[in-house]
Design brief:
- The protein has helices spanning about 5-10, 20-30, 35-50, 50-65, 90-100, 120-125, 135-145, 160-170, 175-190, 210-225, 250-260, 265-285, 290-300, 305-315, 325-330, 350-360, 410-420, and strands spanning about 80-85, 105-110, 150, 195-200, 230-240, 245, 335-340, 345-350, 380, 390, 395-400, 420, 430-435.
- With about 425 residues, the chain is α/β, with parallel strands linked by helices.
- The strands form four sheets. Strands 1-4-5-13 form a four-stranded mixed sheet, with helices on both faces.
- α1 packs parallel to α3 and α5 crosses α12.
- The protein is globular, with a radius of gyration of 22 Å.
- The two termini are about 40 Å apart.
- The structure holds uracil (URA).
Length: about 425
């Protein structure tokens, strides 16, 4: 078999066999198919696409390019959630302890933020002492003892995806549904989970802003996951507006803890509870959606979800007092500036992309994969879509440290561009758009 013939085959619209895909992925790992050939291949796949059978074979080959964890010795169902990312999307920190409290083990491997979207690892690292780089033994131990574990991707998990993702980033081939499907599923299935819930976001701040694209991605991931024998459920959710009221790492941890105390904003609670309920259903610990939702709500009301979060924070080296007094434990920005409404009316638009971008300018996000984040920086929203404001009311707080003072005018301008206020009342947008 020769890579050049396979590139030609895909270029001309052919379909790969399983053996051909395994040859190509093995060659990526051992260097016998050089990255320049893989670059041409990703472009051919971008244009020609892949059938479900090819995509399933690609997921399987990438998944087996590294260690596939076996968590069979941990009793009970193991279920994870993956989100395609958004602004203020902190649901992992809320739903993982909820699911754990309800009897589902959540062995979660997460990523970092990039651009206008945040990442779970950056949020967790704003908790003093919290370690996301556990070795595999510690990963298993924390999962068994706490019912959840929250770590970063290790070099052992789906190494083919690391190489391929960087290559796609450099060759303008990220936006390919079979390649995204293979990337996400190979990483997630390597965690040793029994089932997976997907939060596929659509709208202004989402990776797939058009609903038809997000729906196609969700359909691809559920079809391929199920074809590989894993129950996968996807929710298509709205990312036109940031989720919750806080954007930025420590601010989002604080808001997540408020949710676990039963004091979170309604939109964030709704999405977190719906996703957690899907995890309970896939894990087989609830009879139906209503039953699952009521278990989840109970875990908040009786404090058991908060207790799970405290346990995992302490087990991963973090300061457990964050659960009771986040304001004294989490880093806080030295400066807070207000953005005030320049007219009265109803908030019609609060564009997630611009809010995320403004937060990034204040230091909360990174522009390159190697960049650092300021854990204290970010934005607290005082008004969301549908709310009424009077001229001079505070729309948002901008949190930043003096080293980002220079970025304040641009961040303020970016935030203002995110907001539209008009005279007529407007309904709050629906959050859960479809189940696939
Ligand atoms: N997120 C991933 O992990 N992989 C992709 O290809 C796109 C988004």
């Amino acid at each position: 078999m020769r890579a050049v013939d396979l590139i030609r085959k895909k270029r001309d619209g052919g379909e790969f066999s399983g053996d051909e895909i395994r040859f190509l992925v093995a060659g990526l790992g051992d260097g016998t198919v050089p990255t320049y050939q893989w670059s041409a291949l990703t472009m051919a796949i971008y244009w020609r696409g892949m059938t479900a059978a090819e995509t399933a074979a690609l997921v399987d080959a990438m998944l087996h390019s590294g260690t596939v964890l076996d968590l069979a010795d941990i009793p009970g169902p193991k279920v994870d959630k993956h989100s395609t990312g958004g602004v203020g999307d902190k649901t992992s920190l809320i739903l993982a302890p909820i699911a754990a409290a309800c009897g589902v083990t959540v062995p979660m491997v997460s990523g970092r933020g990039l651009g206008h979207t945040g990442g779970t690892l950056d949020k967790l690292e704003s908790i003093p002492g919290f370690r996301i780089d556990l070795d595999l033994d510690a990963y298993r131990r924390v999962a068994r003892e706490c019912g959840l574990v929250l770590v970063g991707q290790t070099a052992e998990i789906a190494p083919a995806d690391r190489v391929l993702y960087a290559l796609r980033d450099a060759t303008a081939t990220v936006e390919s549904i079979p390649l995204i499907t293979a990337s996400i599923l190979s990483k997630k299935l390597a965690e040793g989970i029994d089932a997976l819930v997907l939060d596929v976001k659509t709208g202004d701040g989402a990776f797939m802003s058009r609903t038809e694209d997000a729906r196609a991605l969700a359909a691809s991931m559920t079809t391929i996951g199920r074809a590989l024998g894993k129950p996968v459920q996807a929710l298509l959710t709205n990312m036109d507006v940031p989720l919750g009221c806080s954007v930025g790492n420590a601010l989002e941890v604080s808001e997540s803890i408020a949710c676990l105390h039963g004091k979170g904003p309604d939109d964030l609670m709704e999405v977190s509870l719906e996703l957690a309920a899907e995890m309970l259903l896939l894990g087989g610990v609830a009879k139906n959606r209503e039953d699952a939702l009521s278990h989840c709500r109970r875990s908040i009301a009786d404090g058991s979800a908060l207790e799970r979060f405290r346990r995992v924070v302490i087990a991963q080296g973090g300061d457990g007092r964050v659960c009771d007094e986040p304001e004294n434990v989490l880093p806080r920005a030295e400066r807070i500036e207000w953005v005030k409404a320049e007219q009265s009316g109803y908030v019609h638009r609060l564009a997630a992309w611009s809010v995320g971008h403004a937060s990034m300018l204040l230091g909360a996000g990174r522009t390159t994969a190697e960049g650092r984040v300021d854990p204290a920086a970010g934005i607290v929203l005082h008004r969301k879509v549908g709310d009424f404001v009077k001229t001079g009311d505070v729309l948002a707080e901008l949190h930043f440290n003096p080293s980002f003072e220079h970025a304040l005018p641009a961040a303020r301008e970016m935030f203002k561009q995110a907001v539209t206020i008009a005279d007529e009342p407007v309904a709050r947008p629906p959050l859960i758009l479809e189940r696939l």
